[in-house]
Design a protein that fits this description.
By secondary structure, the protein is an alpha+beta fold. Helix content is 46%, strand content 16%.
């Protein structure tokens, strides 16, 4: 079985390979059902986690859309 890596929004903000601010992450997550990010998000209790591989696919898909969320 493939091991999946999950990141919290805080981990993404802290990692230098992702250029997202706290405000940007909050916006993308609040609009996740409209912008396509929902498939990468896992909600466990009240916490949100992002599956790294799907999150990175979502980032790349935004280039095709001109960066619109």
């Amino acid at each position: 079985m493939d091991a999946k890596e999950y990141l919290t929004p805080e981990h993404i903000i802290e990692r230098p390979e992702y250029p997202f601010s706290h405000g940007q992450m909050r916006h993308y997550l609040s609009k996740r059902h409209r912008n396509g990010l929902a498939k990468a998000v896992r909600k466990i209790g009240k916490r949100l986690y992002l599956r790294k591989d799907l999150f990175e696919q979502w980032i790349e898909s935004q280039a095709d859309k001109g960066g619109k969320s």
